[in-house]
Amino acid sequence: MTVVLGADSYPDALVARLRESTEAAAAASRQWLGKHDKNAADAAATTAMRRALADAPFTGTVVIGEGEKDHAPMLANGESLGSGGEPHSDVAVDPLDGTRLTAEGIPGSICVIALAPRGSMFDPVGVFYMDKLICGAIGRGVVDIRRSVVENLTALALAKGVAVTQLRVAVLDKPRHVQLVADIRSAGARVRLVGEGDVSAAIAAASGGSDVDLVLGIGGTPEGIIAACGVRALGGVMQGRLAPQSDEEMATALAAGHDLASILELDDLVRSDEVLFVSTRVL
Fold first, then answer.
1. What tens digit of pLDDT does each residue of 143-185 get?
2. Are 135 and 234 within 8 A, CB to CB?
3. Number of CB atoms found within 10 A of residue 176's CB
4. How far apart are CA 9 and CA 59, in angstroms?
5. Is the pTM of this model over 0.90?
6. Which residue of 3, 15, 70, 103 shows the fewest CB atoms closer than 10 Å?
7. How many beta carbons lie within 10 A of that of residue 111, not counting itself?
């Protein structure tokens, strides 16, 4: 299944080529389903996507390329894509979001790319993790990443006209989220644990009426910028806060001049309504 959001802002030929790129990457990844070689799956997806984008009708610059934090194959930051000419675009891309899932033959991985006008995407510069809050448009002015889990769940339930017990919250299944999961369950909401890759959960939450009402927790910053493009196209709500996970990453963040206390609103993550988001599910 392929999802395309924001197509009205871009030429049909470019939309078609981006769709082709994610579908080619997904097809290449499927050759590695269940073979327990995530780097081979990632490399296959990257090669297929790069080939499809080589002469795409645009001038693209990769601002967010997945792979730096785990030394995986990647479309590199600063890499140029396309045949040249308009539109000139920032590119956020993950040829295979959920490499471990593909390697183990588990559903949930996607091949994804997002565009926005050149210079409009936030560049996290060496910070690979971000604390995120994502939901549909109904949460605008209702939820806030600075508030407690209980406060946010209570406010969102009231806005939706449902009990807190009916809310479903997606959280990456990581040791760092043990307390967060406990807090959500203590508040009475249901937890949907996501094995790897939180872009799909972000899109589900932002779309409204899906099986996810809210996304909370720390995930990849590259995935966060990609998700922000989809959330913006859907009119959803997203906030982020950089969350270095090691002393080395903390030092890099401070050296780059990041304000780690700053809340990144959707307008900070991608400063344009002219976004294009395309993803294809692997399995």
1. 999 999 999 999 999 999 999 999 999 999 999 999 999 999 9
2. no
3. 12
4. 15
5. yes
6. 70
7. 30
